[in-house]
Every structure is written in C-alpha cells, then in structure tokens.
Design brief:
Layout: H1 2-35, H2 39-52, H3 57-115, E1 123-132, E2 140-143, E3 156-158, E4 163-170, E5 175-179, E6 186-192, E7 196-201, E8 210-211, E9 224-227, E10 239-245, E11 251-255, E12 264-269, H4 296-307
Antiparallel strand pairs: 1-2, 1-12, 2-5, 3-4, 3-12, 4-5, 6-7, 6-9, 7-8, 9-10, 10-11
Length: about 300
C-alpha cells in the first residue's frame, strides 16, 4: 500500500509540470499573437473573435443577469427613497391643507358676522372661544372677553350664522356662555310665517325641542325660528334655526349656529327696555276755542253801521 501511494505521487508530479508548462506556452503564444502587427495575424484574430466570442453568450449570461439585478436593486432603492420623500411631502401638504381649511372657515365666519343685519341699536363685542367646558350634563363654552370689556350676564351670543346662547357667569377677562342646547336653557321664540309663539327648551341634544305651542298644526318642517324678545331675555328677531320633525314626530329646531366649530362669538350689548311702572293720564282731544261775546259799547256802533 505504501508503494502504491508513492507511485501515485511520482506519477502526478510530472503531469502537473507538463500541464503548467503547456498552459504557460499557450499564454505566451496568445500574448505574442495579440502583439504581432501583421495582416495575417490580424485576420486570424478577427476570425477567432468572430468564431469564439458569439458562442460565449451563454457563459456571460449569469454575469449579465447579475449586473441587471444590481442595477435593478439600485433603481428600486432610489424609487423607495423617492416614495418616502413624496410621503413626507404629502403629509406636510395634508397639514397645510387642514390649516388652510380652518383659516377658510374662520374667515367665512368672520365675513358672515360682518354681514349679519341686526338692530342698529345693538352693538357687539367679538370674542374667541378658549375652551369647550361642555359635558354630558352641561353645554357651555368660555370666551376671552369679560368684565373689562363691559360684558354683562344675560347678553346674547351669536356666531356668523345664528344665536348660540347667553352669557352666564362673567370674570374679569373671561365669560361663560350657556348654549341653547343646555338643559337649563329656556328661550321664547317665534315661528314664522305662522307667528306661533313657543319655548325652545334645551335637552343636551343637537336639536332642542319646541314646547308650549298654541297651534302645532300650523307649524311645518322648514319654518324659520327667531327669538321673540318676550320676557326681555333676548332681543327680538335673532335667527335661531329651522323646524324639523324627529323620528317620534316631535317638533325640534335645527340650530343655525355651527356648534361643531365655535371659534368666534359675538356678544350683543342688549340694553333693557324702558319699563312703565305707573298708569298714564288720558289725553283728551284738542277742542277749538269758542268766540267770546263783545262788550255792549262795542256792539252798538257795529249795529248802527249795519243799519246804515
């Protein structure tokens, strides 16, 4: 066994030397052929390339596919980065869009407030809603105007569309507004065009019911509801909303004010009406003065002149 192993080693060593020498000879010959500037050698090189190179496409296919894969991966990475950048820009655009929509709504409300036609005797103070102090049992908001601005308890508040509520609690720099939807809110209203008087009663819902109607059959959905001014709670003629029927066929009021976006409110300075505490005297119609009789001394000459 040792002899066979030794004879194998002795056989492989000369074969290795022969192969290395042959490979070196071929490489040297190839180098010399590619370096010789001869027309015949040039034709040989051209023929060799035309013969061998096209048949090597199958060998170059894995390399080509690998290069294409690397380029595709680089392109995918670039597309991914661009996609992420576009997503970030889209998110920023959404934020800008939301800000623009809010500014547009605020601008529309301010313009609507400027276009509201009220009694010229009613002046107003505009305030910004600081916080929503509402709860399931109480509906109110806080304004950034108070006693320093001359705000008084009981004054009506409106947004750019309709009546919102009344002032209930005044601080030095803030005031609380009880909304029409609050359970403690009760305001007298008039339903047009029938002229029916009623009471709008808050019940912590978005559409307060109408109660104490004299003739409910004269009221139709879509009728306009305004403040009546009875009791001196609110000035008359302020828009409240429109009548609608709920699923129980109960009359309710769809409020004109946008309670979802109460950003600005107008506080109406309503001065109490002059009260008459004592009955007045009857004023008799004017009577024309009667002619007084002339004295006797003046009447005689006038009679003689008449006879003459």
């Amino acid at each position: 066994m040792a002899r066979d192993h030794r004879s194998g080693i002795e056989f492989r060593t000369p074969m290795r030397r022969i192969l290395i020498g042959a490979l070196a000879f071929v490489m040297a010959l190839t180098f010399l052929i590619w370096r010789i500037d001869s027309p015949r050698v040039e034709r040989f090189r051209a023929a060799f390339i035309d013969r061998v190179v096209p048949n090597l496409d199958w060998a170059l296919l894995p390399v080509t596919k690998f290069v294409d894969m690397v380029e595709g991966f680089q392109s995918y990475a670039s597309l991914y980065e661009q996609n992420q950048e576009l997503r970030r820009e889209l998110q920023q655009m959404k934020a800008w869009k939301e800000a623009a929509v809010q500014l547009e709504q605020q601008n529309a409300k301010l313009l609507a407030q400027n276009q509201v036609r009220l009694d010229p005797k009613l002046t107003s103070v505009s305030g910004v809603v600081l916080a929503d102090a509402g709860s399931p049992f109480r509906q109110s908001v806080l304004l950034n105007v108070g006693a320093r601005d001359g705000i008084v308890d009981g004054w009506a508040t409106m947004d750019g569309l309709g009546l919102v509520g009344r002032i209930s609690g005044v601080g030095q720099t803030t005031a609380r507004v009880i909304l029409l939807t609050d359970a403690s809110s009760r305001i007298p209203v008039t339903i047009q065009p029938s002229g029916q008087k009623a009471m709008l009663v808050g019940d912590n819902s978005a559409a307060p019911p109408v109660e104490f109607l004299e003739s409910p059959e004269q009221v139709r959905p879509g009728d306009r509801v305004i403040s009546s001014g009875d009791g001196g709670v609110f000035p008359a003629g302020l828009l409240v909303g429109q009548v609608e029927l709920d699923k129980d066929r109960r009359l309710r009021v769809r409020l004109a004010a946008d309670y979802e976006r109460l950003n600005f409110l107008r506080v109406l300075r309503s001065h109490p009406a002059e009260r008459i505490t004592a009955p007045g005297r009857l004023i008799a119609p004017a009577v024309p003065p009667r002619a007084e009789p002339l004295p006797a001394a003046e009447a005689a000459p006038q009679a003689e002149a008449g006879d003459g």
